Amino acid sequence: MNRILVVEDHAPLRDQIAALLLAAGWAVEEASDGRLGLQLALAQPPDVLLLDLGLPGLDGVALCQRLREQADRHVPVLMLTARDSLDDKRQGFGAGADDYLLKPFASEELLWRCQALARRGELGRSPVLRCGPLRIDRRSAEVCGTAGQVLPLPPQAYRLLLVLAEAWPRTVSRSELHQQLWADEPPESDALRSHLYTLRQALGPDQGLVKTVHGVGLRLSPPA
């Protein structure tokens, strides 16, 4: 599931965009001001950042500039604004935007552009993640452990490990894990505990990599 961060201070429009993206199968995170938007984008880089320009706290151009300076990977940025002059567009692209969409916009076009940016971001990202002794191949959904053997991970246990690996070294809260694994359809039982147990059993000698941070969530802790 692709993740998108919507940074827009106009609540009705933000709600409209979030509903559109959720219906299309995206995991949506929201921010109403520039400082919070930058904080969220750096803490867990989304697959696409949908960015308004006229934001309180930190405007969209400054946010994009700081993101390009501080992020450890390229986050595709779609600027969404009513500013339609050539100079406005020059500033947006100069700050590091990947695309620019004028308000008002057609819902279908917004989705097309977000999907295209997500694909572009995926092409620039290595398909293989390494975390300590683990090797996670996103293409084949295979995980290799210390001895190089492929670990028998069920789909949700694999997804749990992938979320933790992509967030490393950050601790991922239980609420965020629920959102990543089940979006808006959380299971009735404590399925996270069950998938965590399955993951640790499958990791065998590497199960100590998955740490519980009490009162916070889970994180991977590979040896230095």
From TrEMBL:
Q: Any idea which UniProt keywords this protein has? A: DNA-binding, Phosphoprotein, Transcription, Transcription regulation, Two-component regulatory system
Q: Where is the OmpR/PhoB-type domain?
A: 126-222
Which InterPro entries has this protein been placed in? CheY-like_superfamily (IPR011006), OmpR/PhoB-type_DNA-bd (IPR001867), Sig_transdc_resp-reg_C-effctor (IPR016032), Sig_transdc_resp-reg_receiver (IPR001789), WalR-like (IPR039420), WH-like_DNA-bd_sf (IPR036388)
Q: Where is the signal peptide?
A: none
Could you tell me which residue ranges the Response regulatory domain spans? 3-118
Chain positions with 4-aspartylphosphate modification = 52
Concerning SUPFAM superfamilies, the annotation shows:
C-terminal effector domain of the bipartite response regulators (SSF46894), CheY-like (SSF52172)
**DNA binding happens at which residues?**
126-222
Q: Does the keyword Transcription regulation apply?
A: yes
PANTHER family given in the database record: REGULATOR OF RPOS (PTHR48111)
This protein is called what? Answer: Response regulator transcription factor
Q: Please spell out the taxonomic lineage of the organism that makes this protein.
A: Bacteria, Pseudomonadati, Pseudomonadota, Betaproteobacteria, Burkholderiales
